[in-house]
Design goal:
Layout: H1 3-28, H2 31-38, H3 42-54, H4 78-91, H5 95-104, H6 111-130
Helix pairs in contact: 1-2, 4-6, 5-6
Amino acid sequence: MTADYLLRRAQSLIIKQRLQWMKEYETTNNANSVCRRFGISRKTFYKWHKRYEESNRDESSLIDLPRTPHSNKLRTSNEVREQVLKLREETGYGPRKIEDCLRKDDIRISSGTIWKIISRFEKEQAFKQSA
């Protein structure tokens, strides 16, 4: 069995279980009894019930959503990244000195972030050369 098959099977079982909650609620109209019967908290029940109702009772709404963010607002911009790499190439400075140079241009970025930018770039270059 492949990992994909096992994942799809697990999701299918989870959807069936949550559908049982919804059907039980439709027949009893009592969230407390549904929660007691299935051993879940009311907060959990209402979270899934809200998703189910908002999607017009679409079963696919009962799948767990990924927790990874769609975007990262704090991500360093490409312009700043290019400036860091340009300073590194031209001067050979380390992260702290680059941080000082960027501050003069009113760019606030930590030396740790600068170090990460430089390391990732160097790893990418090493990988490209080995390929």
